[in-house]
Recover the amino acids of this structure.
């Protein structure tokens, strides 16, 4: 009898959750703010500054969606999540969208019942070693001690890579990234491995960054992107096309500076006109105003501007575009057409 | 008689020799050093080792503090200023100090409110602790404080805390009136009255939400050391009464009451606090309807209070068990009923015995509040581990921040411990 009571409670709770998640757009509009899940802090990707204002590459996605939906890039309630709480926060409806360095994998997309709406950063696992070690390639790391974060995909990728190349290694398991860096700098391990973007960000904080080198090999695919719950495809469309608008804006030369002027009157390029709402009814098709893409771009800038401002080569993190260049420049960043 | 030997003795001393000072190695600092530090080969070796360790520690620590810099906008500027002199980059503490204290989301122009609440704490706490030296009316300050502090920290209309206070007050009066007709009847009536007042209060506060209004701050915005203090103070003060009830319940002769208390205490003590916090944060979110706004801090307070009241119950049970059976029988022979004999005879003695244990739990609990950083709340440790250590400006600074956290926690915990020792001396009635 007790079992049936518990099951009944679960069923009611499940039904309630399903019922309310159907119209996320209406919920967000009624609430007046977007609940956006971010990290508790990754340099360049999401971090509150000294005044408590969230900044970063992932944060820009949240702000762009808020600008597109509500017309106000500040109307975001940032919900910091850890690696342990992020998926339950999204599944339970506490957040509307999760933009948190999350790798798009098969099981997360299907079994956990989320929809990845795109990729905003193509990452991959890399290795960092002290220059003094004189290693130029990851293939020379046979027998090395390796600092890794436990319970991550990096741990599994590392095992795969060393097995495939017939090498042995000794793992030094560590809980957090900051702790791993301390251990690495103290000489507890020869190699530190994690996503290449995090390696670059953490190397920027070293006292002597030149004493350490990131090896050229990238041993895994880590496509990072924003995700939403299953069950509300209209909302997934909104987030997906807001991201695509930022990407297309860079391709088409629309920037934070010139977007107002370009959106004031129809120009020569019909795709820009359709995207910025001076031609056609694309906004109405996803339930937003015709100026949705203009608002998003005016708030944060196009994809390239967001990249350069937060993690690009002019910042202390100094990431190159690499895979994250536009497809025309040899990268993988590619948006379907606005038509 | 005196000159019998006058011619046979050349000199007779007729005054006492003034006492000469003891040899240098038998006096003052030298004697102390010889006796205490170098009294044998083993002690000498240990002394020299100890001095070497102290020198080694200080030779690192003193340059780190003295050469440290308090200016600079990020770690790179810090390193430029320090030029490898081995000093600490205390600029991070200077720049992020408000964030360490209040978290990064509490509006900066409202920080005076929690600060004022903190200062008022020093007015509100003494009446409860030092009532033997103060007039009794000062207890009213302690009673008003929780509601005032809530209003100051969270803001909103003042009607909300006023109605909660009224509900507590009238609930208690109803209970006291009706208790004679039976404990359970009284308790039920009290709860009904309190619930009715809170319901009316909710309507009135909704209607007149402009009345006595301070700008509202969401629970999500609480952070920093303020969050540790809020959780620590609220949970310790709540868990002492609950702990007393549980301890008494565990000794009860009523099987249901006893069974409930035993199961509760044993279950909560058998579960790590961190799992309770995960339940509060993650699992409850699945059971509540999606838009139910059941405050996260409230959930955490309930869980920590449950946890610490189980521990405090066991500490108090130890105090109850230490009382000789004669004390219970004395209460019965005076014709006191259960409540009276507990209130007047048993608990005052049992609580006195339990003070060191309760303080131990309180200090431990205060430090355990840092566990909330794991469920993405930004207490002091959460602030350091999350936003500050992983900001582009300060990634790479460790020791300075953790040192600041240690100093903050040590100050509070040492204060609590000193107070409890003083209290034990004050309450010593056995005239030894």
């Amino acid at each position: 009898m007790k079992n049936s009571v518990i099951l009944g409670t679960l069923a009611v709770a499940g039904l309630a959750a399903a019922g309310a998640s159907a119209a996320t757009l209406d919920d967000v509009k009624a609430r007046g703010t977007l609940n956006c899940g971010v990290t508790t802090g990754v340099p360049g990707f999401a971090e509150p500054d000294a005044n408590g204002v969230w900044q970063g590459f992932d944060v820009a996605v949240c702000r762009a969606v808020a600008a597109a939906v509500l017309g106000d890039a500040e109307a975001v309630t940032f919900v910091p999540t850890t690696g342990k709480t992020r998926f339950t926060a999204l599944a339970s409806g506490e957040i509307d969208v999760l933009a948190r360095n999350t790798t798009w994998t098969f099981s997360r997309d299907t079994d956990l019942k989320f929809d990845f709406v795109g990729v905003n950063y193509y990452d991959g696992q890399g290795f960092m070693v002290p220059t003094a070690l004189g290693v130029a390639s990851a293939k020379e790391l046979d027998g090395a001690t390796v600092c890794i974060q436990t319970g991550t995909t990096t741990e599994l990728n590392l095992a795969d890579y060393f097995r495939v190349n017939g090498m042995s290694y000794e793992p030094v398991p560590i809980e957090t990234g900051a702790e791993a860096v301390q251990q690495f700098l103290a000489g507890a391990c020869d190699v530190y491995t994690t996503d290449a973007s995090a390696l670059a960000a953490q190397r920027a904080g070293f006292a002597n960054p030149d004493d350490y080198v990131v090896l050229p090999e990238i041993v895994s695919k880590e496509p990072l992107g924003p995700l939403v719950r299953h069950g509300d495809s209209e909302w997934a469309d909104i987030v997906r096309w807001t991201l695509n608008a930022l990407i297309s804006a860079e391709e088409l030369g629309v920037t934070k500076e010139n977007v107002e002027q370009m959106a004031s009157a129809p120009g020569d390029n019909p795709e820009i006109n359709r995207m910025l709402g001076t031609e056609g009814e694309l906004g109405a098709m996803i339930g937003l105003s015709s100026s949705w893409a203009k608002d998003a771009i005016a708030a944060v800038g196009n994809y390239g501007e967001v990249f350069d401002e937060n993690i690009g080569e002019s910042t202390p993190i100094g990431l190159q575009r690499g895979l994250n260049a536009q497809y025309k420049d040899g990268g993988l960043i590619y948006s379907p057409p606005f038509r | 008689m005196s000159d019998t030997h006058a011619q046979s003795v050349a000199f007779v001393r007729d005054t006492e020799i003034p006492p000469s000072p003891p040899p240098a190695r038998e006096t003052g600092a030298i004697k102390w050093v010889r006796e205490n530090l170098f009294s044998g080969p083993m002690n000498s070796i240990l002394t020299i080792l100890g001095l070497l360790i102290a020198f080694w520690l200080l030779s690192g620590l003193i340059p780190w503090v003295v050469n440290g810099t308090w200016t600079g906008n990020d770690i790179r500027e810090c390193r430029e200023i320090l030029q490898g002199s081995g000093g600490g980059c205390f600029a991070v503490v200077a720049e992020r100090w408000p964030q360490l204290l209040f978290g990064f989301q509490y509006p900066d122009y409202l920080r005076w409110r929690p600060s004022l609440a903190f200062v008022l704490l020093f007015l509100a706490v003494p009446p409860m602790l030092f009532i033997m030296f103060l007039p009794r009316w000062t207890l009213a300050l302690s009673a008003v404080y929780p509601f005032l502090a809530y209003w100051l920290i969270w803001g909103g209309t003042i009607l909300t805390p006023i109605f909660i206070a009224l509900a507590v007050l009238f609930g208690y009066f109803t209970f006291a009136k009706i208790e004679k007709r039976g404990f359970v009847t009284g308790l039920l009536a009290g709860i009904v009255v309190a619930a009715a007042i809170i319901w009316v209060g909710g309507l009135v506060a909704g209607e007149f939400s402009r009345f006595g209004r301070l700008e509202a701050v969401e629970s999500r915005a609480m952070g920093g050391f303020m969050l540790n203090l809020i959780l620590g103070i609220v949970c310790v003060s709540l868990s002492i009464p609950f702990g007393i009830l549980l301890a008494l319940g565990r000794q009860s002769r009523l099987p249901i009451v006893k069974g409930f208390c035993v199961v509760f205490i044993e279950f909560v003590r058998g579960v790590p606090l961190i799992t309770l916090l995960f339940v509060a944060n993650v699992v409850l979110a699945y059971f509540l309807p999606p838009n139910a706004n059941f405050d996260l801090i409230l959930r955490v307070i309930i869980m920590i209070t449950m946890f610490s009241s189980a521990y405090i119950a066991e500490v108090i049970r130890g105090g109850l068990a230490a009382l000789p059976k004669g004390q219970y029988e004395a209460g019965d022979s005076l014709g006191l009923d259960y409540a009276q004999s507990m209130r007047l005879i048993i608990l005052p003695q049992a609580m006195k015995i339990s003070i060191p244990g309760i303080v131990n739990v309180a200090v431990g609990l205060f430090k355990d509040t840092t566990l909330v950083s794991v469920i993405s709340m930004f207490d002091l440790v959460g602030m350091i581990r999350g936003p500050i250590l992983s900001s582009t400006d300060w990634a790479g600074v460790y020791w300075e921040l953790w040192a600041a956290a240690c100093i903050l926690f040590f100050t509070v915990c040492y204060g609590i411990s000193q107070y409890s020792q003083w209290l034990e001396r004050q309450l010593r009635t056995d005239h030894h």
Summary: Chain B has a mean pLDDT of 86.
